[in-house]
Structure formats: C-alpha cells, structure tokens
Design a protein that fits this description.
By secondary structure, the chain is mainly beta. The two termini are 88 Å apart. The chain contains 1 helix and 31 strands.
Amino acid sequence: YTQSSGNGSYYLRATACDSLGNCTTATSNVFKLDNTKPTLSIKAVKSSAGTEVATNTTSNEKLKFTLTKGTTGGSGSTLKYCVDTANTCTPNTAYSSVFTLNNEGTYYVRYQAFGGTGVNSDIGSYKANVVTATISGTPTLTASWPNTSQIKVGVSGMTATGDTLMYRYSLGSTVKQDWTTNSSYTYTGLTAGTSYQVKVETKLQTTGKTGNSKTATIYTSKNVSGTNSGYSSSSACSSSTYSVSASGVYPAITLSSPSCSSYTEPTTSYCSTSYTTTSSSCDSTASCSTGGYTGTVSYSSRSSSGTTYSCGSWSDQRSRTGECADESIGEMSKFPSCSSGETYYEYKCGGYPVAPTSSGSCGYRQMYCYYTRSVTTSESYTCYYSGYISTGSTTKYKATYSGVVKPATTKY
C-alpha cells in the first residue's frame, strides 16, 4: 500500500485471520505525510535609512535583505539564496538572519524554500540596482617632456567615491592606453617640435559611470642650436652664453657651456683705383695695391666724356655762283671740307641741296646751297675699380651651443 497524498499523521492497521475465523489486528506507529509546497518572501531596505526598496528600483545606498517563511508543511522548511548578475544562479547559501550586500550596480538575489519532504517552493528573484559611487571634477592635464619624442601627461582634478577612477589615453582618434587606474601616461614615438591632440577620458571601474574628459593640443619639445663666431680668444668663447628668442609656444631660453673651436679668418683691406681709356669698354678686373698688398678687385662703374662742336647750321646760307647755279649739280663738292675727325652732313631734297622747312620736309628748289656739319671729338672713358683684397689671416674662435626648449605651458 502506498500513501502519496494528504498531509498529517497516519497509522497503518493490519488484520490477519486463519481458516477457523480467528483474527488478530496490529497497529503501526504513527507516520506523517507532508505534501505542502512551502512559500517565502523577500524584503530589501536601505542599509542606513531602513527605507524599503522595491525590486527593480534604484537605490543610492547598499541594501539589507530579509527572507521570511510563508506556508510551511509539517516537515518544516529551510531557506536558501544566491547572488549573481545574470539571474541564473541556484540558491545554495543557507539563510539564517538579515544580510547586507555591498554590491554596486545591477545584481539579482534569488531565493527558495526547501520542504523537509523534498517539496520545494519555486525560485524567487529580486532585481537590485545600487548606485552609490560618484565621479566628479574636470581633468587637468600636466605635461612634461622626457625627451623630444615623448610627452608625459599626468591627470588631476577628478574625485571618485565608492569606486575606483580609471583613465583612457588617446592621441587624436587613436587609443594609446585603454582603461587603466594609472593617472599618468607617456606618449612615445613623436616628432620634435610638433603639435599633437591629446585626449584623456575618465570613468568608474565597477559601475562604469563616466566622468568628464579633456582634450588638449600639446607640442613636443625641440632641439635648438646656434653658433657665435668672431671671438679673439678661447676664454671669451667659453664664458659666453647663447640666447634663443621666444617662438610660438616656446619661451626664450639661455644656453650655456658652449663648445669652443678655432677657425682661420682672412684679413682684408679696402682698395680702389681708376684709369682713363678711349676704349668703349673697361677691363673686367684690375689690380689694386694698398698697404703693401696687391690684389684683384672688381669692376664697379664707368663714366664717359666728350665734346660736340658745330661747323655749320641751318642759318649758314651761302650763295656760291657757279657752284650751284645749275640745278643739275647734284653734289656740293666745292664746299669747304670738315677738319679731320669731324663728320660732314649734307641735306638734299630729291638729289639737290635745298633748305628744309621748319617741319623738316623738302622745300622748293632754290639757287642756294645749304649745309650744316657737326663734329664730335673722340670720347674718353674713366673706369673705376674697388673691392677688398686679402692682407693676411688671423686665428679666431667660435662657440657652438645646443639644447632643448620645452613649451612654456605645462597645465592644460
């Protein structure tokens, strides 16, 4: 006989009889049946205020939980729970009293009542959403320059409560260091004297809550160098400094302890000369002497001079009877000739010597002969030469400076 239903106390009575009708009855000890499905409930309150928080409601405090038995069969029940973020765990932690969870963010408390006879309740679930951590402030970036190809950025100005600050470092749109708890990062492989867009983002490690970010344009440091020359002694060279003027984002700096070296500097003296020639051009170079030194100097300029004389004019009209009486005469061959070196000009109109009009056109024929002549004496040219000629050499010193200049601004 099997008794599988019902609840409460039961006895088994059995009677045995023989063929003569003699019977005896036996009664078993009491046994109990419990087929009651247990129930339970859960209650969550804020850990300090004690205010009840319903499932799937955000709390700004950590939560305390109480499990309470409901319906229970005669065999009693035990309560168990578990905690996860996926709402899939199996309750396996025995409940004995109120418990507090320090979890942040969204998580689940799953709970179940276990009957003494193996009849258990369904699994219940409470969804918690606890946000107690905060992130505040605006990042301040402090730059330093380990060398001309690196920028080191330190981050300050951010505050987190109830969680850990994390940082992400980017160069332009490229992430160089993903989320880390380090509040500084060194960008490497950069070009000296070049600007870069640096970006730093912030968030909380556990809750993932994001904070403010900061983007700044920061220049790398750069090498600067220079040379001062013309020192007459090595001591003057070594005791000097070299000043670099401010430029853009870079401040003015002074470089000291220069490297000193000697060099040979020629000594020169100014020299000039000139000479006169009837040639229409000057020589390209000429020699000049000064202070006992002779050297070649360069042609610089030329001037010319000469005189023009008139040995006739338009008003000089001369009637030469017998020379010009016949219009057929085509040459004025009997006019006096010009002196040697002069030029004779004969004005004719249609082959005959006539006087031009005021406008320069031919006039009517006359029985007069006109002539004019002009003469220019030979021109002379004066050629001038000047320049510096070498008169020896001297030993001097030069100071070579080098250093690194960093941007004036360090806070961004």
